[in-house]
Amino acid sequence: RDAQESRGLGDVYKRQDVGGATGGDITLGQLVTANTSDTSIEIHSDGDVTDANGATNNIESGGRLVVTSDTGFGTSGDSIETDVASLDIVNATSGGIYIQENNAVTIVDLIQSTGGDIQLRATGITIEASGTGVDSGNGEIILDAGAGDFDNQKGATAITTSGRFLVYSADPTNAGDNRNGSVSYTHLRAHETPEH
Questions:
Q1: Rounded distance, CA 44 to CA 109, Å?
Q2: I need a labelling partner for 126 at 20 to 30 A (CA). Which of 54, 63, 89, 167 fits?
Q3: Tens of pLDDT along 28-69?
Q4: Counting Cβ atoms within 10 Å, is residue 52 exposed (0-12), middle (13-18) or buried (19+)?
Q5: Facing residues of 78 across strands?
């Protein structure tokens, strides 16, 4: 597979569409758009998507980030840094989904098709009712809403895993239910932090 470097480090476009069905690995610098649509930034890779610029935001958008990847979106040691309104991400075969969102964000889909870890840290997390929600197969899930709210609008089917999951928020509005024997910490005291 050929690695691709994301174009336009810091450049602004009306809409971003990176990679393709056979795009190989993608190394992200920075993608920025003021577009607020449900497809404002789309990334498609039959490999992985990794971070190339340290702690600087990789993706900034007033709309939705849509991703299909095959072998991971970010890594456990280096998350993809985002500042977007909503997330629709499906990873197919191996690797995990690791995101550091710098504001509050809405989850439409965070899906590991064949199982793998999902970690999302933000300053507020909403799982919307109309999407699939969060499904890691047999992987572990961490949803860390930081000082913001965790708002589960989908109900009991919002989080699906045969592994463990942890939800952290300072002031949840609707944290959902424990499922399949997994343990969910839906409201930890302010001085406590989730295990990473």
A1: 15
A2: 54
A3: 999 999 899 999 999 999 899 999 988 899 999 999 999 999
A4: middle
A5: 75
b/e string for 65-104 if b means 16 or more Cβ within 10 A? bbbbbbbbbbeeeebbbbbbbbbbbbbbbebbbbbbbeeb
Amino acid letter, residue 29? G
Q: Name the average pLDDT for the chain.
A: 80
User: By C-alpha distance, which of 156, 188, 183 is closest to 170?
Assistant: 188
Whether 104 shows a pLDDT value over 80: the answer reads yes
Return phi, psi of residue 189, to 5°. -65, 160
How many residues in the chain? 196
Cα separation, 58 vs 6, in Å, equals 10
- Distance, in Å, from the CA atom of 161 to the CA atom of 105, rounded to the nearest integer, reads 21
Identify residue 191 by its one-letter amino acid code. H
Give the pLDDT confidence score for residue 155 in this predicted structure. Answer: 83
What is the pTM (predicted TM-score) of this model? 0.80
Q: Is 6 exposed, middle or buried (0-12, 13-18, 19+ CB in 10 A)?
A: buried
Which value, to the nearest 10 degrees, does the dihedral of the CA atoms of residues 38, 103, 187, 152 take?
-10
Q: How far apart are CA 193 and CA 169, in angstroms?
A: 9
